[in-house]
Specification:
Layout: H1 3-33, H2 49-80, H3 85-96, H4 100-133, H5 141-172, H6 177-200, E1 207-209, H7 213-226, E2 233-236, E3 247-250, E4 257-261, H8 262-267, H9 270-285, H10 288-310, H11 314-318, H12 327-342, H13 346-367, H14 370-383, H15 392-398, H16 404-412
Parallel strand pairs: 2-4
Antiparallel strand pairs: 1-2, 3-4
Helix pairs in contact: 1-2, 1-15, 3-4, 4-5, 4-12, 5-6, 6-10, 7-9, 9-13, 9-14, 14-16
């Protein structure tokens, strides 16, 4: 393959990619606006027309922002690649040192920093304009800036050694370097997954043991009935940043935690909280986390094997604007461009994820009251301004969870 042909293929792929994304946004907008004056029949008792219309307007605002983000990010991708941006940045770093590994680490870290700065206006707008407009934002500027600084330091503390290790292995392990890099990434992922609940998450949020004795007793009884153990039941100060509500079960091995957002605790009854937790336990019961982890490991192995082939192809580099091939530029080119070519895999991943959600709902309905699960989900949909009946094609490509209408109707069959 010639570099010019690969450039043409890349441009065609980007055109298809951006066209489908924008088309799906348009479909979603048309679908939800059709029900603007009418709440779906199965939700009319629990969700008011005002709440329903708020969800539609909130979704429309996010679609408009995403419309611009898609066009802007695609433009930036073209400037980085065939526009010569990556090549220019790479040359700057290679002029600073003769050590290719140091140059590679500097190149990648500086690219991450520049990418974060480019993305910053969107984050500011989403937090302080869009989320503020619809009453969800609780973040002040101090918290926002502090989060940015903490994230940057965390990236440097964790990212620098990892990036150096990857580039070092790419340089010394020969033709099958990608197998060794894959093993390092597996170990790193498992380590982070283990460290996150007790050591990383507290950097950004406060976690306090659940002080509701009656609720804690009920939860412990639920854990006993279902055969689960955890490192504790905690309430997170989610209201520090947003009024959105959520709950999750995190960690591996003995380092597992049940975490409720304080916004969820305030808005749910004890029985509804148990139903939500039972759903999360369902994911553990069916080993969904492990299955997703194994799936991601297999995908990363295939991706690294593909990169192992592309790294020896000059057309891959020259076709994407890199004049002097290197391991670090190959790594970045692959990371930036693979979403364009793998976009059509999204519906498959989302299908499997939705299947897992249905299975977790079955588990929750078996060990708690299905009515409590339904009422808790309806409250979450209402309070988080979630669309009740999205466009089905948009949902296939973007939603990892079943739509509200499909999910609620399915749960009602478990009663």
């Amino acid at each position: 393959m010639t570099s010019n042909l690969f450039t043409l293929i890349f441009l065609i792929a980007i055109f298809i990619y951006i066209t489908i994304l924008l088309w799906l946004n348009i479909r979603q907008n048309k679908t939800i606006i059709q029900s603007f004056d009418k709440v779906p029949s199965e939700f009319r008792k629990e969700i008011t027309l005002k709440d329903h219309q708020k969800a539609i307007e909130y979704t429309q605002a996010k679609l408009k922002l995403n419309h611009f983000e898609v066009i802007f990010s695609t433009t930036i991708l073209l400037l980085w690649t065939i526009g010569g941006g990556l090549d220019y940045l790479d040359n700057i770093w290679q002029e600073q040192t003769n050590n290719i590994s140091y140059a590679g680490v500097g190149f990648i870290i500086s690219l991450i920093i520049l990418g974060s700065l480019i993305d910053l206006p969107f984050r500011v707008y989403q937090t302080f304009v869009l989320e503020q407009k619809f009453g969800f934002n609780q973040t002040n500027m101090k918290t926002f800036i502090t989060d940015l600084l903490k994230s940057a330091l965390l990236i440097l503390a964790i990212g620098l050694p990892l990036i150096y290790a990857i580039l070092y292995l790419m340089g010394i392990m020969g033709e099958y370097w990608w197998i060794y890099v894959w093993l390092v990434l597996i170990i790193f992922s498992l380590l982070i997954f283990w460290l996150y609940p007790a050591y990383i998450a507290p950097i950004f949020n406060q976690f306090k043991p659940l002080d509701n004795i009656e609720l804690r007793t009920k939860i412990n009884n639920l854990l006993g009935r279902t055969g689960f153990k955890s490192d504790g039941i905690f309430v997170m100060d989610g209201s520090k940043r947003s009024s959105h509500a959520n709950a999750y079960f995190t960690g591996i091995g003995q380092n597992k935690r049940i975490v409720f957002f304080d916004t969820l605790i305030k808005g749910m009854s004890d029985n509804e909280i148990q139903a939500i937790l039972a759903h999360e336990l369902g994911h553990c019961h069916y080993q969904h986390v492990i299955k997703r982890m194994i799936s991601s490991f297999i995908t990363s192995l295939l991706g690294l094997a593909l990169l192992g082939y592309l790294i020896n192809q000059n057309w891959f580099f020259h076709g994407l604007g890199i004049s002097h091939p290197s391991n670090h530029s190959a790594l970045i080119l692959f990371t930036l461009t693979i979403p364009v070519f793998s976009f059509f895999i999204a519906p498959i991943n989302n299908y499997l994820s939705r299947k897992h959600e249905f299975e977790a709902d079955v588990f929750a309905a078996k060990h708690t009251n299905a009515n409590d699960l339904v009422s808790s989900l309806v409250k979450l949909y209402r309070d988080n301004a979630t669309i009740l009946a999205p466009d089905y094609l948009y949902s296939y490509f973007h939603d990892s969870h079943p739509s509200a209408s499909i999910r609620i109707n399915q749960i009602k069959t478990y009663k």
